[in-house]
Write a structure and sequence with these properties.
InterPro entries: AAA+_ATPase, P-loop_NTPase. It is built from twelve helices and 16 strands. With 376 residues, it is α/β, with parallel strands linked by helices. The protein has two domains: 259 residues, Rossmann fold (3-Layer(aba) Sandwich); 79 residues, Winged helix-like DNA-binding domain superfamily/Winged helix DNA-binding domain (Arc Repressor Mutant, subunit A), CATH 1.10.10.10. Strands 5-4-8-9-3-10-11-12-13 form a nine-stranded mixed beta sheet, with helices on both faces.
């Protein structure tokens, strides 16, 4: 017997499960393609994108059983929220009310009461207590929100092994309860332009362990496409990734509480593209507010190409981006060229036929076509 085999505990036995004995099961979707019961999801983005308000908007949909932004139906369910950053009284509950939530179906994780008094709940050590509390609900929750998810890691959240071990109890709890687990976190500062999964704060294990990673971005007011926030699927091990939906954060006053102002989400149109391309397109400024430099020759070439490409009239924005990519022009450089030329965006069609088109401003001529020809 080898030295390694000699160290095996003879009092334990490993079980091998034959695949033929396993009954295949479909993914139990809470929001098809976006939120799945029993799975870990990470929602990451810059601080200004309204991640918490966005998550509460999702919670409100679940409590009421109303349609998702893409029209998909859902049944009413309970939501459990732990927040280490926002107060339930002055921040979270007002936002839930503004979103139309049935607050009877929302439960906040409170203090842990012990013989010597009450203490703050710790998601790194008190998951067992949480499991006991959830067992007392009339039915299992449909959604469990942990904000921020890094608080579930007692050790170094930048170490892969420690992060995986720390998240395991929460993931197991979500599986046992059959609820979608959403952990909220930030992007690491100074990572604009990189792959979205690489931008998630902490260990890569956060993105690796999650079955779905959602990311948010914000287009500034002077962005060519206009201001908007984006919710995008950066990763999905159980469905398609890429694509997303636009949303905005608005301030509102609660009708039942005069003078109490809070924020709510207004859902917008669906968007297409990879997570990285959508984020690069939105983030025209670096994390420090300084425009990422593009070499003058690249920008000049992009301006010349774009001017010529749009000389015959408006074209769908996705077609322009696709053709620019074939010419070796990055999306970031293309958008800066667009800003420099003053290219405008117009929307045509309605519903599923709605699309954005780019058009040169009036009176602009192509550099490669004589002006006299364009005036005819």
């Amino acid at each position: 017997m080898s030295r390694g085999l000699a160290q095996i505990d003879q009092n334990s036995e490993l079980e091998l499960i034959n695949a033929s004995s396993i009954q295949p099961e479909p993914i139990d979707w809470l929001w098809p393609g976006w939120l799945a019961r029993g799975k870990l999801h990470i929602l990451a983005g810059a601080p200004s994108t309204g991640k918490t308000t966005l998550t509460l908007a999702m919670a409100a949909i679940i409590t009421r059983g109303t349609a998702w932004p893409d029209g998909a139906p859902t049944a009413p369910g309970r939501v459990v929220i732990w927040s280490g950053e926002d107060d339930p009284a002055d921040t979270l509950t007002p936002r839930l009310l503004a979103a139309g939530a049935d607050t009877e179906r929302v439960h906040f994780v409170g203090s842990v009461h012990e013989d010597n008094g009450a203490r703050t709940f710790d998601p790194a050590t008190d998951v067992g207590k949480l499991a006991e509390a959830l067992a007392k609900l009339p039915e299992p929750p449909a959604l469990l929100i942990v904000d921020p998810i890094v608080s579930a890691v007692a050790g170094d959240s930048h170490k892969n092994a420690e992060t995986r071990r720390a998240l395991a109890p929460l993931v197991n709890l979500a599986q046992l309860q059959g609820c979608a687990l959403v952990g909220i976190t930030h992007f690491t500062k100074g990572t604009a332009g990189r792959e979205p999964l690489d931008r998630v704060t902490g260990s890569l294990a956060f993105g690796a362990l999650a079955r779905i990673v959602l990311v948010t971005a914000r287009r500034p007011d002077d962005h060519p496409e206009g201001p908007a926030r984006l919710l995008v699927r950066a990763k999905s091990n159980i469905g398609i990734d890429g694509g997303g939906v636009q949303y905005e954060i608005e301030e509102t006053e609660l009708a039942l509480y005069p003078g109490l102002c809070t924020s709510l989400v207004r859902w917008g149109d669906p968007i297409e593209g990879t997570a990285r391309s959508l984020l690069i397109s939105a983030e025209t400024l670096s994390d420090d507010g300084i425009e990422t430099p593009t070499s003058a020759p690249e920008k000049t070439r992009a301006e010349t190409w774009l001017r010529d490409f749009l000389s015959s009239g408006p074209l769908p924005s996705q077609q322009v981006i696709k053709e620019a990519r074939r010419e070796g022009i990055s999306e970031r450089t293309l958008h800066r060229a667009r800003n420099a030329l003053g290219v405008e965006s117009v929307c045509t069609g309605f519903g599923k036929d709605r699309q954005s088109k780019w058009v040169m401003p009036k009176g602009t001529f192509s550099a490669s076509v004589p002006a006299i020809c364009q005036q005819n």
